[in-house]
Each structure stands twice: as C-alpha cells, then as structure tokens.
Design brief:
Number of domains: 2
Shape: globular
Structural class: alpha+beta
Strand content: 15-25%
Distance between the termini: 27 Å
Number of helices: 11
Helix content: 40-55%
Oligomer: single chain
Radius of gyration: 26 Å
Strand order of the largest sheet: 2-6-7-1-5-4-3
Length: 405
C-alpha cells in the first residue's frame, strides 16, 4: 500500500534562494508549454501538441538556457510537463461529460508551489535514519537540506516532492509498504451523523462538539485582511516590506486554521477507528450543499429580485466549510483501511425524519433543529441521535446485501 509523509525542511539562506529559483524555473517551463499549446490551437494546427512532443524538446530547452533550465533534474521537468498534460486531459474529459470545463490557466507565483521528483535517486535522494537529527534530503541544484523528521519512514521511498507553504518548505514522500496488521476486533458498530451544532453524533447518543476553528479566528483574519486591503494591488516584485508582511499574516492565519482542522479530523477519526469495527456515515454531496440559491426575479419590478435567503445560506456555507466534513471523511477512510475497519456510506435522505421505533417518515417529525418527535408513535429523542441510528441501520443493511452478493 502507498502512504505519504510530510516533513518540515530547514534550508539555509542560500538553499532557500535555490528552492525559490527551482519553483520559478519549473513554473516558467509549465507556462511556456501551456503557451505553446494555446498558440498551436489558435493557429489551427492540424497536429495537436502532446506531452511526448514537448518532452522531446526538453534537451534543446536545457541546452539553450543552461543557467535556468539546465541546472535542474530532467525527470522533475518531465513531471511538470505531465502535470500540464493531466490538466488538459481533465479539461477534455469535463467537456465530453457535459460538466463545466475549466481551461488550464497560466500559473502565477502563488499558484505553483510544488516540484515533483518521480523517483528517489533521480535528481533527489532521501538520506535518513529513523530518529536521527542529521536527516538530509538532497536535490539537484540545491544541495543537502536538513529535514525535521518527526517520525520514522516505513517502506521504500517511491517519489519525493518539494512544497512551499508561505515561508516554510516541506518535503513530501510517498512510500510503498506492506499492509499493516489489522487492529483487534472490538465487536462494536456505530453510525455517525455529521452536523453544524455538533461536529458529529454517534448512534449511542454521544455528541462531539464542533471546534469552529474558522469562526474563532474570524476577527483576527478580518483585521489582517483589512490591513492588506489598504495596500494597492501591485506586482509581487514591486511590493513594499509592509505589504509583504501583510500578505504573510493573512496566509499564516489561514494556515493555522487549516492545521487545526486537520489535527481535529485526525484525532476524531483515530478514536472512531480504534473503538469500532464498522462505521457508517452519510454519503454527503458537500459541493451541492454549498451551492448558492438561485435568484428570484421580481415580475412586478423588472430588474430586481425577490429575497431568496442568500445571506442565511452564505452563513450556512461558511459553517459547512469550517466544519471540514470532506477532509474528515477522507482521513477516516484512510485510517480505516490501514486498521482493517469497514466504512460504509449510505443515502442521507430522510435519515433525521424517519422514526427509529415505528419507521414513520414525515417532515413534521422534526419540529426543531435538535428535537425529534414522531407524529405517528410519539417517540422523542435528539434529532442527530435519530439520524445516526438510521444511518447505522442503513449501513448494516447495505453490508448484509453486499455480503450476500
């Protein structure tokens, strides 16, 4: 199985400059290849430009510009060209499937922050001993960079990537390792209901509070964004020191909130995986849930619209994004796979409107956000607990159906 590791790098001043130059030159290669494809299409070329053609030009590009392109790894430059080819492949796939296509865009400084090396030992070398403070990673054109390896790397290193986040540099490794031994069986099954008031509620009635990291940092983030808005929009190389500090402050606050969400998701998912053999959850379409409501034109006043609850929906969308359900479910599935646990996604429709006692389903069963009162049999419970119970039952039914096939 494939696993990823992410470690903080500690480059010297000279190495940090070289890493910036590596990103700059790979971004230039990406944008140049994109421009070539755009020009070929604009001039009606019968032969479309593909990855193979652009990869064959790399030797000439490196020989023509040895100072900027010739100093970096050939295989990493091929990977950058493959990244562009994947973007075009996804673009044409969306067109064929009738989705809204997004044409590949030129990458600015803030939209190109990763360089990939497809093989350890080809332009890069991971040289580490578990718990050794002298861990290093070597990159062609940069040198041996010190790494803060906070945990041992298990398995054979397959790929290495360099990633910039603000002023920090990280190395990301993917390794191939044998499947770990599953955790001992607990005999417990659980259904979870994700929400806003409580991050999740289990079928046993346990409520896990929503940390609301984004809301807690909202005031500081708004102050930082107001300070940034005072500066005029200029090119990156024309920014003053105060402007750069304002940009970094906003990025730092966003990064802290993102790390807090990840930490909460990892700890919550780990607790569920350790305690339960089967975990059922709602198959939420989060992107659809966050869509803005459509405008309602006012027939009596042309050019104006009726109230459509857009302000309230925007607040709900912020709360959904702050909860980070998608990240949590992704982490839960990954941890469950490693632990030998089973995760089942079920249809979320009417899970909080169906009575777990008599099965009666009606909108009136949920008079308030938290209260469930069945109009058929009079059963009362917390609405989120009812939803988690129905999710668990639907998950077990689906599990039995799959086992019978």
């Amino acid at each position: 199985m494939i696993r990823a590791y992410k470690f903080l790098m500690r480059p010297t001043v000279g190495q940090a400059i070289a890493l910036d130059e590596m990103l700059r030159d790979h971004r230039s290669l990406y944008n140049g290849a994109l421009q070539e494809r755009r020009d070929a299409y604009r001039h009606g070329s019968r032969t479309s430009v593909k990855y193979g053609m652009q990869s064959a030009q790399l030797k000439e590009i490196r020989a023509f510009d040895p100072e900027r392109q010739g100093r970096w790894s050939f295989s990493s430059q091929q990977t950058t060209l493959r990244r562009l080819d994947k973007a075009f492949t996804a673009f044409f796939r969306r067109i064929k499937s009738g989705e809204t296509p997004g044409y590949p865009r030129f990458r600015g400084v803030n939209r190109f922050d990763t360089v990939d090396f497809p093989k350890d030992g080809d332009g890069c070398r991971w040289d580490a001993t578990p718990h050794d403070p002298r861990t290093r990673v070597r990159f062609q054109g940069v040198g041996h960079v010190r790494v803060n390896q906070h945990r041992p790397v298990v398995g054979k290193v397959k790929t290495v990537s360099v990633k910039r986040e603000g002023r920090k540099w990280f190395v990301v490794l993917t390794t191939e390792q044998p499947r770990p031994e599953p955790l001992p069986a607990t005999g417990s099954v659980v259904g979870i209901d994700l929400g806003i008031a409580s991050f999740l509620t289990t079928s046993s009635g346990e409520h896990l509070d929503n940390p609301r990291h984004g809301r807690r940092a909202a005031e500081r983030l708004e102050a930082a964004q107001r300070a940034l808005a005072r500066f005029p929009r200029v090119r990156r190389d024309k920014r003053t020191a105060n402007h750069r500090r304002a940009v970094e402050k906003v990025a730092e606050l966003h990064g802290k909130v993102r790390r807090q969400r990840l930490d909460h998701a990892h700890k919550t998912a780990l607790g569920l995986v350790r305690e339960h053999d089967v975990i059922a959850h709602e198959d939420l379409k989060i992107s659809n849930m966050r869509k803005a409501p459509k405008a309602k034109p006012d027939s009596e006043k042309p050019g104006t619209c009726l109230p459509n609850g857009a302000a309230a929906k925007a607040g709900l969308n912020r709360s959904i994004a702050d909860a980070g359900w998608g990240v949590f479910l992704t982490i839960l599935r990954a941890k469950a796979e490693s632990a030998g646990r089973e995760v089942i996604a079920v249809d979320p429709r009417n899970t909080s409107r169906q009575c777990p006692e008599c099965g009666h389903t009606a909108k009136e069963n949920r008079p308030t956000q938290e209260e469930f009162h069945c109009v058929g049999c009079g059963h009362r419970a917390h609405a989120d607990t009812v939803g988690a119970l129905n999710v668990l039952r639907a998950g077990l039914v689906r599990r039995e159906a799959q086992a019978a096939m």
